[in-house]
Amino acid sequence: MKYRDYYEVLGLPRTATQDEVRRAYRKLARKYHPDVTQHADGEDRFKELGEAYQVLKDTEKRAAYDRLGHQWQNGQDFQPPPDWDEGFEFSGASNEPGAHADFSEFFEAMFGGARTGRHSRQTERHGPAPDRGAATADDLEDAYRGTQRPIPGQDHHARVAIDLVDAYHGAQRSISLQMPVLDAQGHVILQRRTLNVSIPRGVRDGQHLRLAGQGGAGLGQGPAGDLYLEIAFREDPRFRVDGRDVSLDVPVAPWEAALGAQVTVPTPDGAVELTVPAGSASGRRLRLKGKGIPGKTPGDLYVILTIVLPPADSDSARAAYDAMRQAFRFDPRAHFTGGRP
Amino acid sequence: MKESMTGFVEGEIVEEDVEFTLVELCRASGASEAQLTVWVEEGAVEPQGTTPGEWRFSGAALRRVRTARRLAQDLEINAPGIALALDLLDEINALRARSRRASGR
Fold first, then answer.
1. What is the full DSSP assignment across A3-60?
2. Helix B61-75 / helix B22-29 crossing angle, nearest 10 deg
3. In angstroms, rounded to a whole number, what is the distance separating the alpha carbons of residues B94 and A299?
4. How close, in Å, is residue A209 to chain B by CA atoms?
5. CA triplet B64, A217, A203: central angle to 5 degrees?
6. How far is B67 from chain A (nearest CA, A)?
7. What is the C-alpha separation between A157 and B69, in angstroms, rounded?
8. What are phi and psi for residue B94, nearest 5 degrees?
9. pLDDT digits (tens, 9 = 90+) for B70-82
10. Chain A residues with CB-CB distance to B85 below 8 A
């Protein structure tokens, strides 16, 4: 297992006060919060921050962590010394997986058992727990410890990445999920399962798919929860997506733009023939109505023309450009000088 | 639960086909009824209907309320702060979409 330097994660010296720990966490949490951040690695950073804060904000855990010494480097191979947590409140607890499923192996080994301690459990409920969290496990445990009323299962959330073309035609995906369930002894364990899902035609980036009854199991006749799948489109090298609409840059030769042409254009639904009108300027947008993402109100496909110049890399090519110069007497910067040559 | 012939589970698109009651949206988003009620009072989420029992939330509210719940939990933001943060996030997303359109021309 790898050592985690929680001070480094929060950018703090080991002498930082509890107030400084809280301030540093708050500041970085605002910056890297997955709902707010523009950083691509925001989600991972935010998890690291949450893990570091779980330990350093709790004076007991922090003291135990500090006792490991400061000779360790972040990412260094690490084994906890025997009895490292002797004398601290959270010691001796059984290790239940699931509570911090997204935290590091290091955290799980050192502090993962802490959740049966009363006061640390309190802090966890209020801490930045991962999305599917301790509350589920608690509900299950409470139910196991003799609650008789039927409890509906938890609603679960997961994300699934699809390609733009899948939104045009629909798709089938096998997704793998982790869900907390009770084992025979009443312990909460994470169970992996695979679910085959049909992605409907017309779904858009950021929408949610509700799969009724595919969430957490209910207890005592309670119905199962639902599973919500958030749809994310993978970046496409050619097509840009904006809601229902899709756009595509199409390179054209100068003579195609000037004289008009028939060109073959790819769409997520297959190639189509497109008429480039004579006299098209670079950047002209041509709309293919209804060729965007399908649905009750289908989106449009926008073709954006970009004029590409052929290279003047042979005598005949240079001669052709020279013939153009003579034929046009064209000053593209005429408006800079009020029309004077 | 619907199973298609091939054993693939079919779902419904929340933003298009689903409406939530207060209780349903709380279950789906993980927010408490108390939290959601305060956010409605603050205008951060706008259901149809007048009393909490009659409230009907659009499918699109799910994303908004989940974001609200995470912000409230992770950054301890109160209801007016949540309302402001959601409005600003909407604005940022609109600006990003506009600049994407502009850069792609």
1. ---HHHHHT--TT--HHHHHHHHHHHHHHH-TTT---TTHHHHHHHHHHHHHHHTSHH
2. 60
3. 18
4. 5
5. 40
6. 6
7. 14
8. -65, -40
9. 999 888 899 999 9
10. 36
List C-alpha distances in Å: A111 to A91, A115, A121, A126, A204. Answer: 9, 8, 11, 16, 41
What string of pLDDT tens digits covers the 105 residues of chain B? 444 445 889 899 999 999 999 999 999 999 999 999 999 999 999 999 999 999 999 999 999 999 999 999 888 899 999 999 999 999 998 898 888 877 754
Maximum C-alpha span of chain B? 49
Paired tokens of B98: 């506009």
Q: Which of A35, A285, A296 sits opposite B70 (nearest CB)?
A: A35
| Cα of B102 to nearest chain A Cα, Å | 11
Angle between helical axes of B22-29 and B33-41 (0-180°, round to 10): 110
Which of B13, B63, B93 should one mutate to test binding to chain A, selecting the residue with the greatest count of A CBs within 10 A?
Answer: B13
Across the interface, do B15 and A242 touch by the CB < 8 Å criterion?
no
Cα end-to-end distance, chain B, whole Å: 44
Instruction: Give the gap in angstroms from C-alpha A250 to the nearest C-alpha of chain B.
Output: 11
pTM (2 d.p.): 0.74
Tell me which residue in A36, A229, A240 faces B104 most closely, judged by beta carbons.
A240
Q: Do B62 and A208 touch (CB under 8 A)?
A: yes
Closest residue in B to A207 (Cα) is: B15
Question: pLDDT by residue (tens digit) across A291-313?
Answer: 999 998 999 999 999 999 999 99
